[in-house]
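A note on notation is needed here, since sequence and fold are reported together in a single record. The reader may check this reading against the record printed directly beneath this paragraph.
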Amino acid sequence: MSEDALLTRFNFLVDIYASQYGGDTGLAQGAKGAFSEVTGLELTLEPVTFREGGYHAGPRQLVGKTTATPLVLKRGVSLDAAFWQWIGRCTDGSYPLPYVSGAIHMRPADGEASGDQASWSFVSGIVTKVKSADLNAVDPKDAPIEELHIVHEGLSRGAA
């Protein structure tokens, strides 16, 4: 079974590429992984209440700090050595950390290899947790990556 055919069995395709913020030299471009579930597609904006003199209708509401929730990729696989190299560089304790940018593509339910239903992009991401699945799989669709946590500095929704 080809790598592309195997990756189309999953709902979400993840691409990573060098962010040019340092630590990413030597990482291959376009590393891929595929996952069954993605959580953490969330940004929280902290509200700031501001009382303005002379404005008597009540306090003004402004937006303060934006917080990005870590991305959690669940039950997936990557056959790409560059993807595993990035994970290794994040977890081996060396500096500078290999910050990468990436994209998460939601695949069509029929498993077609082309066309996205939706996509999200993240910037300056690093791995903070890797949990491998038990190695008792007999079917290639069984996932060797149980969870992969990525902290990042920004998230945006792409065009479908």
Observations:
- The mean pLDDT is 81.
- Helices lie at 3-7, 81-91.
